[in-house]
Write a structure and sequence with these properties.
206 residues, 13 helices, globular
């Protein structure tokens, strides 16, 4: 199942509340959920790598510098030296990950037809691509409706608030919670990110 437009998102939100009524008040607070769909391909996956383990503001700033420097294509990344990549804000590990991705020659068209977990497993074979990055790509670039990214700290904190938990759930616990929200886990993630923005007055995802 895919989320391709606002109608899919609205349908998913209605069905999500049927699965877990506590999302009803969340949706009342946050209003319309953001679609957040983006193109797939090299630049989208590189952007997800850039976003790893940094704030949304830092990730946006780094990506803006990369776009300005013309460093969002595989050929350009391959040709760039360390100085150029450092100048746009990439750490040494992310320089290595970016170059590995540029040389990987991924079948992006084939990934469009793959099942979500197959997408995740394929991407996780790349250096620097963990489950969070792979799930973000599957969710926002390929539009899969049943992908969650339970390792995301903003989702964990938002779940703590929404479900009135004593402590922030870890990745394994949140993934178990999210199992009950299938096949609309990507809608649940959007709802929790939107609630995080309201509750914390800052973005949880770029």
């Amino acid at each position: 199942m895919r989320i391709r437009d606002e109608r899919d998102l609205e349908r998913g939100a209605v069905e999500l509340v049927g699965l877990e009524p506590r999302f009803g008040p969340v949706l009342e607070v946050v209003g319309c959920l953001p679609l957040r769909l983006r193109e797939d391909g090299f630049a989208a996956l590189l952007s997800a790598i850039v976003s790893q383990q940094v704030s949304t503001a830092s990730a946006a700033a780094i990506w803006a510098r990369m776009e300005a420097a013309g460093l969002v294509g595989a050929a350009a990344v391959c040709k760039a030296d360390d100085r150029a990549l450092k100048a746009v804000g990439l750490s040494r590990p992310k320089m290595r990950y970016a170059r590995a991705l540029a040389k990987a020659d991924l079948d992006y068209a084939g990934l469009r037809e793959a099942e979500p977990e197959d997408v995740v497993q394929t991407l996780m074979k790349l250096p620097g691509v963990g489950r969070w990055t792979a799930e973000i790509y599957a969710k926002f670039s390929l539009g899969h409706a049943d992908v969650f990214a339970a390792g995301d700290l903003a989702l964990q904190e938002s779940a703590r608030l929404v479900f009135e938990l004593e402590a922030r759930p870890g990745e394994a616990e949140l993934r178990r919670m999210a199992d009950a929200w299938a096949p609309w886990r990507a809608v649940a993630a959007r709802a929790l990110w939107a609630y995080y923005r309201v509750a914390k007055n800052r973005e949880g995802i770029r």
